[in-house]
């Protein structure tokens, strides 16, 4: 293994296989640079087996930015050539509109969705300020590549993608030491966590430890949609084995090579995890994500009355469905075009993933995206703001009723069942305000310190933004 250290205004080279790769100067302030150490291990002539960050003072790049796990993934043939580190660093040390513009241009010029996904992860690691600026100002454009539909492919191939894991793995081997693992996590001021056990990832089934990709994608939406400081966010994957025979046979798979544990052994592991999490961060919001049906409902029933937790697949989906009054249509398997043709243009359509608008009877109609991201980030952030003890189902009724009232009749007739996702932070402020007021009035939470009676102002003030005066919105 070779090691190299990158400092401000340095110029270094590294061999990837037998091919030298030049890394150009990093143009950033000395106090921002500190030391960035990268270990590169060659697996062969044309592949990069791993890239791991050994030491990165990320606070110097982005105030209170989230830590990076030392766990890495093996390289793969996802790139047609070896990963060129210069493409990651080129120009991204500088902070400003020019660099933001070039980053967006690079993103748009990247063709394959999975390559866009990888580009965004690289950008988040090496220039988090620019990444989060784009995430929060171009949310609608980036969303399909940090979450559905691209995150599905990312999870299926997670173990072979050339990227760093961002979250925390907790496996059966950690039993008896889970609390210590939380205490050893680099960022201790965690307020929101998304956890999966990888058993039912989207519609793809059991992906085991590869399920980390879904937690990493989902947690990003708390920042993008509801302004939760990324330093306060933690994606978690519980590795309890997998019944996916293909993954178990793949030498690149990083998870436990054993069948999933079930029954009492599984329940005891989850109980230790929940107890350790509560002892570590008593007021943390925990979102259950993509657990198998056998466990999802019973875990929610068990922990909802005694923890600040919810299951987005159950409550978030029900909430957005209720808000859109589209339960029957969401259950049907058809495209927007098929629904429009069948109904002669009179259908109100919503889907989890985006569809392109259609011209029907001379008028452009827009399919609504019934995306849970309208709901769960705002509900979760409201719970954090009020330090809610629990999140009962009636909270989601309040959120659904509030969201349903944000679209005019004229917009609904044009197919806009929900406000444009480009306004998601504005939508989240109103949802947070309604939910927070309900939580306090119901005795579930308490008013934050200094509260002046204006919930919308309070919630807007709680939203995080990129802490860099040099980064301002640009028109591009």
How would you sum up this structure, described in words?
- Residues 124-304 form the Malic enzyme N-terminal domain.
- The chain is an alpha/beta fold.
- It has 20 helices and 14 strands.
- The chain has helices at residues 30-33, 85-89, 97-109, 113-126, 128-137, 139-146, 150-156, 178-184, 212-226, 245-249, 263-280, 293-303, 312-324, 327-331, 336-343, 376-386, 394-404, 409-413, 424-441, 455-462, and strands at 2-6, 12-16, 19-23, 36-44, 47-56, 168-171, 192-196, 233-239, 285-288, 309-311, 350-351, 358-360, 363-365, 368-369.
- The strands form 5 sheets. It has a 5-stranded parallel β-sheet, with helices on both faces. Strands 1-4-5 form a 3-stranded antiparallel β-sheet, with no helix packed on it.
- Helix 4 crosses helix 5 (128-137) and helix 7 packs antiparallel against helix 9 (212-226).
- The longest helix is centred in the middle third of the chain and has 18 residues, at 263-280.
- It is globular and about 60 Å long.
- The model is unreliable at 1-95, 326-330 and 469-476 (pLDDT under 50).
Counting H and I runs of at least 4 residues, what is the number of helices? 20
CATH topology call of the largest domain: Rossmann fold
Instruction: Spell out the CATH superfamily of the largest domain.
Output: Malic enzyme, N-terminal domain
First-to-last CA distance: 42 Å
User: CATH first level of the largest domain: which class?
Assistant: Alpha Beta
Task: Provide the structure class.
Answer: alpha/beta
What is the averaged pLDDT score? 78
Unreliable residue runs: 1-95, 326-330, 469-476
- Basic shape: globular
- Measured as a percent range, the helix fraction is 40-55%
Output the radius of gyration: 22 Å
Q: Beta fraction of the residues?
A: 5-15%
Q: Could you give the count of β-strands? A: 14
CATH second-level architecture of the largest domain: 3-Layer(aba) Sandwich
The largest sheet, given as strand count, sense and whether it forms a barrel, is: 5 strands, parallel
Task: Give, in spatial order, the strands making up the sheet with the most strands.
Answer: 6-8-7-9-10
């Amino acid at each position: 293994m070779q090691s190299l250290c990158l400092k401000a205004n340095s110029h270094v080279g590294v061999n990837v296989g037998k091919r030298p790769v030049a890394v150009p100067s990093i143009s950033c302030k000395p106090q921002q640079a500190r030391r960035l150490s990268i270990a590169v291990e060659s697996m062969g002539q044309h592949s990069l087996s791993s890239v791991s960050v050994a030491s990165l003072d990320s606070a110097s790049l982005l105030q209170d930015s989230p830590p990076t796990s030392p766990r890495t993934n093996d390289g793969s043939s996802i790139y047609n050539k070896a990963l060129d580190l210069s493409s990651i660093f080129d120009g991204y040390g500088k902070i400003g509109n020019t660099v933001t513009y070039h980053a967006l241009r690079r993103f748009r010029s990247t063709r394959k969705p999975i390559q866009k996904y990888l580009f965004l992860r690289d950008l988040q690691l090496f220039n988090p300020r620019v990444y989060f600026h784009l995430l929060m100002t171009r949310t609608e454009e980036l969303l399909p590549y940090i979450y559905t539909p691209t995150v599905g492919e990312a999870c299926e191939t997670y173990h072979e993608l050339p990227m760093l894991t961002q979250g925390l793995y907790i496996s059966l081997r950690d039993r008896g030491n889970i609390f210590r693992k939380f205490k050893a996590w680099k960022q201790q001021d965690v307020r929101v966590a998304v956890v999966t056990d990888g058993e039912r990832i989207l519609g793809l089934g059991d992906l085991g430890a590869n399920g980390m990709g879904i937690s990493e994608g989902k947690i990003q939406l708390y920042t993008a949609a509801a302004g939760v400081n990324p330093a306060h966010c933690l994606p978690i994957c519980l590795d309890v084995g997998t019944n996916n025979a293909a993954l178990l046979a793949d030498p690149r798979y990083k998870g436990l090579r054993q069948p999933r544990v079930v029954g009492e052994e599984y329940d005891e592991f989850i109980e230790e995890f929940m107890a350790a999490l509560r002892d570590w961060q008593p007021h943390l919001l925990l979102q259950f994500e993509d657990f198998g049906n056998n466990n999802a409902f019973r875990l929610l029933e068990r922990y909802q009355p005694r923890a600040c937790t919810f299951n987005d697949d159950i409550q978030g989906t029900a909430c957005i469905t209720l808000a859109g009054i589209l339960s029957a249509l969401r259950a049907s398997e058809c495209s927007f075009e098929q629904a429009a043709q069948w109904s002669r243009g009179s259908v109100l359509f919503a889907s989890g993933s985006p569809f392109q608008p259609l011209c029907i009877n001379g008028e452009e109609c827009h399919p609504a995206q019934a995306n849970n991201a309208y709901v769960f980030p705002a509900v979760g952030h409201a719970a954090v703001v009020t330090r809610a003890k629990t999140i009962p189902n009636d909270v989601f009724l309040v959120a659904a009723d509030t969201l349903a009232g944000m679209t005019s009749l004229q917009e609904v007739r044009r197919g806009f069942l929900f406000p444009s996702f480009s306004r998601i932070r504005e939508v989240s402020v109103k949802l947070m305000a309604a939910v927070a007021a309900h939580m306090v009035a119901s005795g579930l939470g308490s008013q934050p310190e200094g509260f002046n009676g204006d919930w919308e102002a309070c919630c807007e003030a709680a939203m995080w933004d990129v802490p860099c005066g040099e980064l301002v919105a640009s028109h591009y």
